[in-house]
Design brief:
The complex is a heterodimer of chains A (about 140) and B (about 675). Chain A is α/β, with parallel strands linked by helices. In chain A, about 40% of the residues lie in helices and about 20% in strands. Chain A has a five-stranded parallel β-sheet with strand order 2-1-3-4-5, with helices on both faces. Chain A is globular. Chain A starts with 5 loop residues before the first strand and ends in a 14-residue tail after the last helix. Chain B is α+β, with helices and mostly antiparallel strands. In chain B, the strands form five sheets. A five-stranded antiparallel β-sheet of chain B has the order 2-1-5-4-3, with helices on both faces. In chain B, strands 7-6-10-9-8 form a five-stranded antiparallel β-sheet. A five-stranded antiparallel β-sheet of chain B has the order 12-11-15-14-13, with helices on both faces. In chain B, a hairpin with a 2-residue loop joins strand 19 and strand 20. The N terminus of chain B is likely disordered. The chains are: A alpha/beta (about 140), B alpha+beta (about 675). Chains A and B meet through helix 1 of A and helix 15, helix 16 and helix 19 of B.
Chain lengths: ~140, ~675
Amino acid sequence: MEKVHFVLVVDDDPPLRAVLADQLAHAGFEVECASGVEEALSRLEAHPFDVVLSDVRMAPRDGFWLLGAVRSRSRTPVVLMSSFASRETVERARNEGASAILSKPFQYDELVHTLRDLGDGEDAVAATATARDTSGASEDRL
Amino acid sequence: MASRAEPALEELGEAELRSLVRELARENEALRQTREALGAAYDRYGDLYRRAPVAYLTVDADGAIREANRAACHLIGVERSALIGEHLAAFVASEDREKLDLHRQQLFADGNRSICELRLASGGAGPRDVRLESVAYPTADAGGRVCRTVLSDLGDREPAARPLDSARAESGLNDMPRKRKLRGEIEDRKRVEDVLAETASRAATVLNAIVEGVLMIDANGIVLTVNPAVEEMFGYSRDELVGKNVNILMPAAHREKHDDHLAHYGASGERTTLAACRDVVGQRKDGSTFPLELAIGAICDDSEAQYVGILRDRSERRQMEEALRQQRDFAESLIDTAHAIVLVLDTDGRIVRFNSYLEQLSGWTQREVEGKDWFSTFIPGHEAERIRALFGSALTGSRVSGNVNAIKTRDGSERIVEWYDSPLCDGSGQMTGLLCIGHDITERVEAEAALRRMSHRIQEAERLASISTLVAGIAHEVGTPMNVILGYAQMMRASLPDEKNRERADLIVEQVTRLIDLIQTLLNIARPSKPVRAPVELEVVVEHALMFFSDKLRQRGVKAKCEAKPVPRILGDADRLQQVFLNLFSNAIDAMPDGGRLEIGICPAGDGELEICVEDSGAGIAPAALPHIFEPFYSTKPRSHGSGLGLMVSKSIIVDHGGSIEVESECGSGTRFRILLPADAGPR
């Protein structure tokens, strides 16, 4: 896979959209933001992105719905974000084709590494989708 | 009683026995009344016998006269004393003696009734034609038989028959109407005689049949007659008694007194009164004595007084006493086999008696503690005052029912007993003590406690579940804002020029990270997700946890030891259980900065449970803190050292495994955690 450069951030929370956009820009990515699933899809139709970074919990359509939609029409990687992601959410994301899942709150380094790893051609799902698990042992790479 | 449905245990004992005694007393009274009636009947019949215008004789199989009434004496024309013992044949005309023999032989041969007519020899009364009607009876002496004979004077038939005969001779005609009238008179008379004979024989039958001894004496104490019961009672035959002084039936010491009695009795004039029963001593032929009850009746006579004694062998009363004793034994055996405590205390609370059930339960025999104070012997100190007060109120009449208290056994253990008391009273209604029936409900109480523990665990689990829901909800909401704070803090830090502000930004990042850890810990409680249930060897789990701290233990100089008895494996999540021990060991090590002991014990705890004890010799937990240590965010450590969630998490893991955790601690000497886990804890 080519180097990740264009990132579409999808989140219905404006402050988070703002901090993500700032952090990604600071790290050298090009960022567009969408406040929901519909907007994200129309942006994706307008031009291609290297990765979609989407929150899970949104209304009326959520991140998993978007994941399904993207998977059905392109190979664009999707990274999901979930507040204190549970083991179940991590597994579901993996099963439905997400490249990685980030458990909010995550640190700058986690974010940047996760996206860069996608570009390094790693099998992102297997390598990164280890959420902070319930045992509390923090071997996360996220 | 034996055939009755099994009596309730509470009804047993004194009350039951009392009712038995009353029943026996009633039977006794009925017997006494019967005896009186019999006595009266005897008097009536005896009097009739003696005074009847019909002559009665009693003759034995050899033909000797054993008894004769007045009419018989008169008819034969001889004094009674001259008759008794003589052969009847001596008073019969020589030509008729053969007839008499035949009569007697017939009677004793076919044994029923025989009638004959014969002439008496010339005595004081001159020759007389008489009719003998005899009935044979057996006597008490083996094989002996006597006959009772009614003698009817045929002489007064003669004057009527003679003119008839002469008229018949003169006229040669039969004077039919007159003859018929005469015959009618004769038949009437015969009927009266028959009735009288029947009456007398019935009286004799009664006398022979009754179990009471009946004895008749004259004013001088000479025995006139006795019934078979007397023969049996004293071992004398009738012949040995009749004609003797009655005082041979009493011990020598009583004889003189009896003679005085008799003299006084004769003089007092209360001759017809039936004397009250009194207890006297009888002497048998073999010299042995026995208690008997005597009632005396005097019969007034024209010439001399006669007395009838009704004797009752008191050994029969003894039979009743025996029956009573048997009933008591039966009741005793019920009391002793009852699966309940039966205890009798006197009014001072001293032990009068208790059954073998309590002996087994308490380890004390009745003999060892009889007469001792119940409360100081059996009631544990903390209960003694309350129970003594209850005892006091039971004595004042308020019924104690269902009171529960512990009793201490010989080996110092305690049993929990539920009591039902009822007062014991003597005949006058005076309270003499307390009958206490107790059921050992120790097992029941323990089962109830286990049930309470179980329901407490369920409540705990439910409480944790509701906390979990709340925590999960909060986590969802705070994740995003914290992400914003964290992100900008990190960005700002990178752009800040001076060191001081960079440190401040670092502090923000650090504190948010701390919050993240906290929430993650809470979520670990909140979201056990899919529970892992695999066979777990607790000893291995404990050893791994100890290994984790091996460096720290060595640095602090803490000696750790794990003693595991053979226990079954449990079904559980080894990682989470290990987290429990990591938490407990970490706390223990923190409590022993200057070294000490950390001891872990694993053993079976009954009811399919395992017990794990974790004991340290550390600083201990203050009593005020003790009730709160499992609460979330409660910590005695510096804020930076602990989240205050370790024990809460530990507890939630144990509860999640269907177990429980308790703590005991003493300031300065250490803390002891006691974990109970079901050996077969399945998925919950």
